[in-house]
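Review form for a predicted model. The reviewer records the input and the model, then writes brief findings.
Reviewer: anonymous (R2)
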Amino acid sequence: MVSVGDKQHLCSINIHKTIIPITMTACRADKIEKMKPTLHKVAYTGLLTLLLFAIETFTCVAQKDSMSKSLIKDGATPVLISNQFSFTEGPAADKKGNVYFTDQPNNKIWKYDTKGKLTLYMDKAGRSNGMYFDTKGNLLTAADEKNELWSIDKKKQVTVLVKGVDGKLLNGPNDLWIDPAGGIYFTDPYYQRPWWTRQSSELKGKYVYFLPAGSSNPIAVVINLKSPNGIIGTPDGKYLFVADIGDSKTYRYTIQPDGKLAEEKLMIKMGSDGMTIDNKGNIYLTGKGVTIIDPEGNIIENIPIDAKWTANVTFGGRKKNMLFITASEKVYKLDMNVKGAN
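Model under review:
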């Protein structure tokens, strides 16, 4: 079947319901007869390409949907634990799976135990923000009341690990992660706090620091980010993930034997507040709910959270398969099929 377009001076040939446009110079019937074998081949090739593309797209979507369903326990949704706080942050789980988190504006650390009981753990907590447990059971905190790093032992005795860098105040330590050898990586953006008397930073930039085990002198290991915030590493100590919330990007670095970082790789054009990692290597980013990306940076799932801002996340519970989420004045939990990697 041949048809001619009145305005565009084009004609088309219909082969097996595939419409192929051709120019007027090729619209003579004798030429079309000669072209049919070639046009048949083009039509079949086009249909095959479309079919393969559709199969590949469907497979990709199906795999992603299957992956997200396998991460979250079937039928589970975020469960509100409490909404009595001002702004929650810094969740960290001890070896038993009890989760500790901060209410920074009220200067408190709270505990949510494996039996579901919520209690005040510590008052006057140094305006602690991000937190992480070391192998000895000490709770390390980014205590930005005086821009320090703290270690809180089981008797709630505080040891100040870092007071500053090169004789100057830190900007305000925000989040931290401890490597297998006991070294501490922490982010140091600058967010003006109402409890500070100063109005500006004493430092040249907003860096990521490494504190070798036993040292009190942090070393700047990333100096090119706008505002580093969330940070987490792999349990084997091979990779470190850092979110530049100021530039809406998250990076992966390879950790060197001396603690310095190399091989910066952009994981995703999305920043994050706090972060965590599961035993499958997936990274959990926060901000607008919780976004899960795979080890290559592909988005698997977004978990909507009913809050103005989702600030941080960790795994806890007896089996380490409870995702604990701090979100503005609220805290939530979500049952998962995966466990925390750390």
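Findings: The two ends are 67 Å apart (CA to CA).
Further findings: Residues 79-335 form a domain with the Neuraminidase fold (CATH 2.120.10.30).
Recommendation: see findings above.
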